[in-house]
Design a protein that fits this description.
The structure holds two protein chains of two kinds. Chain A has strands spanning 5-7, 10-14, 19-24, 31-37, 43-50, 55-58, 61-66, 71-76, 85-92, 98-99, 103-108. By secondary structure, chain A is an all-beta fold. In chain A, the strands form two sheets. In chain A, strands 2, 4, 5, 9, 10 and 11 form a six-stranded mixed beta sheet that branches. A five-stranded antiparallel beta sheet of chain A has the order 1-3-8-7-6, with no helix packed on it. Chain B is an all-beta fold. In chain B, strands 2, 4, 5, 6, 9, 10 and 11 form a seven-stranded mixed beta sheet that branches. Chain B has a four-stranded antiparallel beta sheet with strand order 1-3-8-7, with no helix packed on it. Classes of the chains: A mainly beta, B mainly beta. Chain A binds chain B through residues 30-31, 33, 35, 40-45, 48, 88, 90, 92, 94, 96-102, and chain B through 4, 31, 33, 35, 40-43, 45, 48, 58-59, 90, 92, 97-98, 100-106.
């Protein structure tokens, strides 16, 4: 299965702190994608990192990819209460995206 | 530009009833997907389509049927609803493989 598995399942931090969540997968990939889901809403794409990239930034988001370890991490710097959401990774090959169970992030003001 | 629109947003059914969930996208995307999301289970792929007139099974296809008669629409049908199909259903689309997916806001379906 190409499914990504997020870790930890839940994370609670104070506003202003950094949040790091990890994703592991088992097969070769073309790219890895991170999504956010606010309560009661659909998933929103955050960032895509290709298999030949090692790091990518978008605003307060930093994603790393280690294809030798088949893992990725998402770092949210200077977190805000509005970052409270579930975060999912999905690996992309030549088959449909398969999502893990997500990391539920709570940012406490 | 509405993106991905799902109708209805909420529905309550009785066991054995049938219904169709509609997904419409206005981005001219080739690929469309139906997922279900249950507590603690993440998103599971039900069926998907790689273009108008095509459909394929995903991870949990049993009890569901789909049709993609028009490129912009992807319909998910429940012929005889069961309580195990109580879930939140999400539709998604993307232009080509390996591109990000765009999601609708879901249909919350309860089957009594």
């Amino acid at each position: 299965s190409q499914q990504g598995e997020e870790d930890p399942q839940a994370l609670s931090i104070q506003e202003g702190e950094n949040a790091t969540m990890n994703c592991s997968y088992k097969t070769s990939i073309n790219n890895l994608q991170w999504y956010r889901q606010n309560s009661g809403r659909g998933l929103v794409h955050l960032i895509l990192i290709r298999s030949n990239e090692r790091e990518k930034h978008s605003g307060r988001l930093r994603v790393t990819l280690d294809t030798s370890k088949k893992s990725s991490s998402l770092l949210i710097t200077a977190s805000r209460a509005a970052d409270t959401a579930s975060y999912f990774c999905a690996v992309s090959g030549n088959t449909p995206l398969v999502f893990g169970k997500g990391t539920r992030l709570s940012v406490i003001a | 530009n509405a993106g991905v629109t799902q109708t209805p947003k909420f529905r309550v059914l009785k066991t054995g009833q049938s219904m169709t969930l509609l997904c419409a996208q206005d981005m001219n995307h080739e690929y469309m997907y139906w997922y279900r999301q249950d507590p603690g289970m993440g998103l599971r792929l039900i069926h998907y389509s790689v273009g108008e007139g095509t459909t394929a099974k995903g991870e949990v296809p049993d009890g569901y049927n789909v049709s993609r008669l028009k490129k912009q629409n992807f319909l998910l049908g429940l012929e005889s609803a069961a309580p195990s199909q109580t879930s939140v259903y999400f539709c998604a689309s993307r232009p080509t493989v390996n591109q990000p997916q765009h999601f609708g806001d879901g249909t919350r379906l309860s089957i009594l």
